[in-house]
Each structure stands twice: as C-alpha cells, then as structure tokens.
Design a protein that fits this description.
The complex is a heterodimer of chains A (247) and B (382). Chain A is α+β, with helices and mostly antiparallel strands. Chain A is built from 4 helices and 18 strands. Chain A has 2 domains: 114 residues, Box (Proliferating Cell Nuclear Antigen), CATH 3.70.10; 112 residues, Proliferating Cell Nuclear Antigen, CATH 3.70.10.10. In chain B, strand 8 and strand 9 form a beta hairpin. In chain B, helix 7 packs across helix 9, helix 8 crosses helix 9 and helix 9 packs parallel to helix 10. Classes of the chains: A alpha+beta (247), B alpha+beta (382).
C-alpha cells in the first residue's frame, strides 16, 4: 500500500537518478520512506536511492515491493510542470498505480516484480581515498574527458593534495587537477582507477545538479559517488566498476 | 579508404563518374530490347534522383526477384547479375502510374503487366552499394496491370491502417513474418505510415533495416545476457561474415575488411569500423551494410531471447566482383547465425578463433569493443 503526495521536481529528480543506469527497477516502500537498489545489465554500475518520508508532503505506506517501468515514468513526468504536487496512490493488493497531477489522472500498470532482477548485494570493499567537490565541477570534468577518450582515470595525489582526472585518447590527452580551492574536503591517500566514460556521462548529468558529491576511490577498485537530493531528504549512491588495462 | 567509404555513391574523389563502377560496367555487354513488355512485374523501384520529384516504376522480369529467393535457389553472383541484366526497369513520373505501383508492391506474387515504352528499352546496367543492380531501362508510355494482386492478411491489415506510424507498421509486419524485401516494397510505394510518401528504394531498404532492428534492439535490452561466448561464420558471394557474441548488455560493432584487389580497396587492404551502445547517432560510415547486419543479429538475439555484445566482421575478397546490394550482408549474416555456434571459453580464444576463420588478425587493432570488453571489470569481481 502506498498513499503519498510529493513535489513534482523531487519525483522527477529521483526518476532521473535511476534512469541513468536502468530501465526498470524494484522499489521498496517502507514505513519511513522508499528505497531502491539496482544494477545495470552488464553488472558494471549500481544505483542505491533512498527517499525519506520527510521528502514527501504526506506519506503513508506499508512494506511492499513495486515494479516500476522507469522509461514509462520518464515519459509521463515530461508532462508535469514545475512545483506541481503529484499524488501517488496504490491500494493494498492492486497492480495499478494511480498517479495524478494538474488535471491528469494516470493509472499505470506496474511490472511483475518477479520479472525484474533481484536487488544486488553491494560488494564489500574498502575505498580509502575521499574527495568532496561540487556536482557541477564533476560533471564538467566528465564532459571534458569524453571529448578526448572513452575512458578516464580518477585519482588523488597526496603530496600536492589534489584530486585529478586524466584521459588518454588515440592522439590526445587531457588532465584536470582540482586543488584545495575547489575541493570541499580531501582524504589524501594515493589512489587511482580507470573508468568507462559511457557510464560516467549518464551519471554526471544527474550529479551535475547536486550541490556536493563525495567521491570514494581505491586502486583499481570501483568508485563510489554519494550525494543528496530533495534538500537532503533523499540520498543517492552510485557504484561503478573500474576498467583494468592489461599490459 | 576513400573508395571503401564512398562505394560510388558520393563522388568523394571529385570525379563525375565513379571509375571503379565505370570500369566494371564496360565489361558487361549491351543488349537490345523491344518497345513493349508483357509479363511478370514482381516489384517496384523508385530512384532517389531529383528528390522529391522522383521517378520510378515496375521492375519487369519473369525470373525470381527477391534476395530470399535467390539465396533459396542458391544462385551465384553471375546468375544474379544475369537475371538483373535481363530485368527491365520501367520509368515514369510516379503520379501517372501510382495505382499500378501500389498494386505491384502490395501483392505477394508477381503481377502480370502490359507496358508500352516511348522508345525501345535501352541497356544500361547500373550498380550501387545498397540496391541490387538493374540492366534494362524504358520510359513508360502506358502501363496496365492485367492481374489481381494477392495480398497477405497481415499486409492488408497494416496497409489499410492510416493511423499507424511507419516505424510501428514496419515492426508489426516483421513480427507477422512478412519478408523484409516486401516491407521495403510497401515503404517505397508509399503504403505505410500516417503521411504517406513515395520513398526512393535505396533509402527505403536502409530505413526498413534500421527501423526494425531499432525496435528489436529495444526488446533485446530487456532480455537476460547470453551465457557463453558464441562464434558464427558463413560466406556468401565472396562476403565472409564472422559474428562474435559475448555476454553483456547490447553493444554492436562492425568491422569491414576490403581485401587488397577487392571492389573498393584500390590495391591495399582497407578496414573501416563503426559501432554503437544503447543508441546510435548519425549515419554509419559503413552505409547500408551496417544496418543490414544489425537487423540479422537482432533477429537472432530476439529469437533466443538474450542480450549480447556483438562484433561482426565482414571480409570481402575479390570474388565479390559486382556490388549486389546490402541484402548480401543481411543474408550472409542470417546464414551464419543459422548454423550451430562455436562456443569459446574466453574472449581471447574467441578472438583467436575469429582470426582463424578469417585468416588474419589485422582487424583486431581496429576494434574499440574488444579492448573495452577485455578491460571492464564487473562489480561482482570485488
């Protein structure tokens, strides 16, 4: 059962977070908010999104799972205007989610949760390097690297206390260093890993809207991006597996 | 490089007539035709010249006309060129013969026509990269269809639906197992979509390949990944096709190798590459062949209900001496995928097996997909 009212922008932002990686997912409705965790088909990237009860203007739910077609949702929210309240209503045992905003009344058939991949277990990893910077800076860095190559190295240099990004194309090279002036915080440990820009570009578009993003890095290990949405009442974590170049 | 990308269609070298095609045309002997024709007209052809004021008409021959039939009969490249050299392409302003054109396109069997030409038909065998060649050409003075079309039920249903967009119509026809050749015929004759237009045949061929494979690609993205690495191989008319399917989300890459002394290589071996992820922007430098190969492989994946990362290598030798059209690539890839696959343990053995089939590994460095697959780790490796 789910009965909730939410600001259209917050809902849209949440859908965008998920749609960067998957086209469908299981959403868990809990007493104190909603949760989702999904991994892309190739098992390379994972998204975890939690939206607290307080992010809704009214919220009432019993623990359940619903299967959401994210692509369909994306097309529907395209119709919503800014700041409009959106009402979600799913009566107990029903298979259709009622969605209403403005004058529109949608009835959306949900996906059978059994056809959607089970929630992945996050890998148990230690990521010692940490840097915090603005989402906008991060997104610009990703976009700049994408012009040159299809992969990018992210790393921290503890001696100069900088977070850097380096991309090597067939013929071109780009390096961007972000020092203490633009970093909100840094844990100076020597780390460096290589990532596919295909994934980073999609994540970057979403992270660009965040005020600050915490990046956790290791050596040839996945990267974790953590940031808040909905004025701190929602939290997102992206996890991306590295590329490892054989010699 | 220039020739392999241009394939005589763009004039990239700056010459008025493509020297490769001209040289080839000179080898084919001219033949004299009559002033009228009575017999079968299995399909229609619309030229792209002077678009949107295009002209076109029926293709007239008593012999098999569609690529699937040629493959089924096992015709060689000489026989196909022979059939096409004897085929007459009737030409006229479309609006004068539009009703007849529609009847021919919609019918699942050749219709008998009676055509009178302005002048005796002239011999001018033309080739290009997408459309199968045609030899004789005559300006139509008067055309009568003297037969009734036989229309398949699925075709009838979709052609009568004027609220169905052309993309959905093409996919629906394909799902009803209507041959791609016939879907192309319907599109070119302006029988699909909401705002119906006559479409030049070479554009229609690629449009149909692209539209259907895009829809299939979307369907495939919902399927679970393939369990093993599979390799397929086939050769048709001097076109060697090697398909490497690897577990993962949909990705597609095609590599074309024009061996030295093949049609478009100009003496040295030429290799061109193109690929895509979930979406593709812009027209492929590999032209129609890219979309034809993609159609064949998406058909296979949707049949086995799996998603995969696909690498297709097309190697063309000098026994492909006349460009026959992109259907060669589509049928060769379909043929490869209908054989039992070779299963490989690792990506590396897969690559070696493919190189073994092609007799060379020079393509490997051109691939962007291979290094990506080899270096990308999964989250569950940690």
């Amino acid at each position: 059962m789910l009965k909730a009212k939410i600001d259209a922008d917050v809902f849209k932002e949440s859908i965008d977070v998920i749609s960067a990686l998957v086209t469908e997912c299981r959403v868990h409705t809990e007493n104190d908010g909603i949760l989702t965790r999904a991994v892309d088909t190739a098992n390379v990237a994972m998204v975890a999104l939690g939206l607290d009860k307080s992010a809704f203007s009214s919220y009432e739910a019993s623990p359940d799972q619903i299967g959401l077609d994210i692509n369909k949702m994306k097309n529907i929210i395209g119709m919503m205007s800014k700041g409009e309240p959106l009402t979600l209503d799913l009566p107990e045992g029903e298979k259709k989610l009622k969605l209403s905003f403005g004058g529109y009344r949608y009835s959306i058939t949900l996906l059978d949760v059994n056809t959607i991949r089970k929630d992945p277990n996050p890998p148990n990893i230690e990521l010692p390097g940490k840097a915090v910077l603005s989402g906008e800076d991060l997104n610009s860095a990703i976009k700049a690297a994408a012009v040159i190559s299809d992969k990018v190295a992210l790393g921290i240099d503890p001696d100069t206390e900088i977070f850097y990004m380096e991309a090597e194309g067939d013929t071109d090279h780009i390096k961007l260093e972000i020092g203490s002036g633009d970093l909100r915080s840094l844990t100076p440990v020597k780390v460096r890993s290589l990532f596919s820009l295909d994934y980073l570009k999609d994540m970057g578009r979403v992270m660009g809207r965040a005020d600050e993003v915490e990046i956790q890095l290791g050596n040839d290990h996945p990267v974790k991006f953590a940031f808040d949405i909905a004025n701190g009442r929602g939290h997102v974590e992206y996890l991306l597996a590295p590329r490892i170049e054989a010699d | 490089m220039l020739c392999a990308e241009c394939k005589g269609r763009k004039g990239l070298c700056g010459l008025v007539r493509c020297p490769v095609i001209s040289r080839f045309q000179a080898q084919v002997k001219a033949r004299q035709g009559g002033r009228s024709y009575m017999g079968g007209a299995p399909s229609v052809f619309v030229g792209s010249y002077n678009y949107p004021q295009v002209s076109g008409g029926p293709l007239m021959t008593g012999e098999p006309d569609s690529p699937t039939e040629w493959v089924a009969h096992g015709y060689g490249i000489e026989e196909i060129v022979g059939i096409r050299a004897r085929t007459i392409r009737g030409n006229s302003q479309i609006r004068q013969i539009r009703d007849g054109i529609e009847e021919i396109a919609i019918s699942s069997r050749p219709l008998d026509v009676e055509v009178h030409f302005e002048r005796p038909v002239s011999f001018n065998l033309t080739f290009n990269d997408i459309v199968a060649p045609v030899g004789l050409r005559g300006e139509i003075k008067k055309m009568d269809v003297i037969d009734n079309p036989r229309v398949e039920r699925a075709v009838d249903r979709i052609v009568s639906d004027t609220d169905l967009p052309a993309t959905a119509a093409a996919s629906a026809l394909h799902r009803s197992e209507v041959d791609v050749h016939q879907i192309t015929q319907l599109l070119t004759a302006g029988l699909l979509g909401k705002r119906r237009r006559i479409v030049p045949t070479r554009w229609a061929i690629t449009a149909v390949d692209d539209t259907i494979s895009k829809a299939l690609r979307k369907e495939i993205s919902r399927h679970p990944p393939l369990e093993e690495i599979q390799i397929f191989h086939a050769t048709l008319h001097g076109n060697q096709i090697c398909c490497l399917l690897l577990p993962g989300a949909w990705k597609f890459e095609m590599i074309e190798i024009w061996r030295e002394n093949s049609l478009w290589s100009q003496g040295t071996e030429t290799i061109i590459v193109d690929g895509e992820g979930a979406t593709k922007s812009g027209y492929s430098p590999l032209a129609g062949a890219y979309y034809s190969a993609r159609l064949a492989v998406t058909e296979y994946l949707s049949r086995i209900r799996r998603s995969a990362q696909v690498l297709i290598i097309r190697q063309v030798g000098n026994d492909y001496w006349a460009p026959l059209g992109t259907w060669v690539v589509r049928e060769a890839t379909r043929q490869a995928l209908s054989t039992p696959p070779v299963i490989c343990e690792s990506v590396e053995t897969g690559i070696n097996a493919a190189s073994g089939m092609l007799g060379s590994s020079r393509w490997r460095h051109h691939s962007r997909l291979i290094p990506e697959i080899m270096s990308q780790r999964s989250l569950f490796d940690f």
